[in-house]
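Let us practice reading a record.
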Amino acid sequence: MLKSYNFKLELLSFFLILFSILSGVKVMSQDIHFSQYTNTPALVNPALTAAFNNLRATIIYKNQWMNLTVPYKTYGATFESKIKPGNWDKLPATNNGAFKQFYSRMAAGISFFSDKAGDGNMGTSQVNLSFASFVPITKKNSLSFGLQGSVVQRTLDFSKLVFPDQYTGSVYDPNVNNGENIASQNFIYPDFATGFNWSYGYSEKAAVVASNPFKANLGASIYHVNAPKQKYLSGSEEKLNRKYVLHADFLIFLKGTNVAIAPSCLLQFQGPSQEIISGMLVKYYFQEDSKYTGFIKRTTFGLGAAYRNKDALIISSLVESGHFAVGFSYDLNISKLSYATAKRGGPEIFIRFVTPNPFLFQSRAKYNLN
C-alpha cells in the first residue's frame, strides 16, 4: 500500500516539475482553443472521446479581448457517447445480490467549433468526427486510442483589411490595388488527428468514485496530421503546421475531508508557436449520495486558477450537481497586449450534461466489477 502511494506521489511530482520547467516557453496559438480545455476533449485528444461517461454533451462560449475594436468570439458544441453504453447487471443469487458493470470499449463523438477574429473577420468553422477505443490493462489502469476526421472552413474578408500599397503618399485609398495575389476568401479542407491516453483510476474494473482517492490522465496527440494547405494567396505553398499536444490532469481526494484538488496542464506546440497552461481547481463535495439507491444528488463546488504562460491569469469556478455542470472562467491579460486590452482577456462559460450521474452507485465500490 505504501509502495503504491509513493508511486502516485512520484508521478505527480514529476509532472509538476515538468510544468515548472516549461513555464518559460513563449505563448502563441494558431488553432481554436479554450481556457477550460478539459471540457473540450475534441480539441485536446480524440482518445478522450466519451472516456469517462456513457454520454456527454457540452456547449461552450468565449469572448476574448473585449477592449479591442473587434473582440474574438469562439463557441462550440460537442456530443460524445459510448457505442454500447455500460450498465449495472445483478449477479445470480449465489453472489449475495452483488452487481457488476459491463462497459463499451468503443466510443464516438461529433463536435462543432467556430471562431471569428479581428477586423478582417478571419473565421474558422469546423466539424469533427471522433472515435476512441479503450483497452483495460489492470484493475485501475487503461489505455485509449483515438482518431478524428474534420471538415474545416476558413474565411477572410480582405476588403476590411488595410495594406501598405494602398497608401498613396500620406493618404489611404481603399480603391488602390492592395498588391496581394489573393486566391480565395473562402476555402474548405479535410483535417485529421490521432492520439492516445493513459488513465489511472478510471478503468472499467475500478470502482466508480468513492474508492478511488487518486485519479490521473496522461495523453499525447497530433493534429493536422495531413498538414493541409492554406489557400488565401495564389501560388502560396503554405501549409498548416502539425500541432503536438501533451496533457495531464489529476484528481486527488484529501483524506478525511470533503475536498479534492485537481491539478492539470496542457502543452501545445505548432511550428514556431507554443501554448502552455497549468493550474489547479479545488473542489468541495457537499452532499453524499444514498448508499442504497443512489437517487440523492451530490453537489460539488470548485474554485481554481491557471496560468497561460506570458499571456493570462485564468480564474475559474465550477458547479456540478447530478448530471449537470456549469463552469465559468475569466482571463486577466498580462502580456504586452494588456496595454490595448486594459488587462481584460475575456469571459468563458460552458454547460455540460453527462449520463449516468457521475455520483451514482458509489456504494457499489465494495463489489467486484467485471
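A brief commentary: Residues 2-21 form the longest helix (20 residues).
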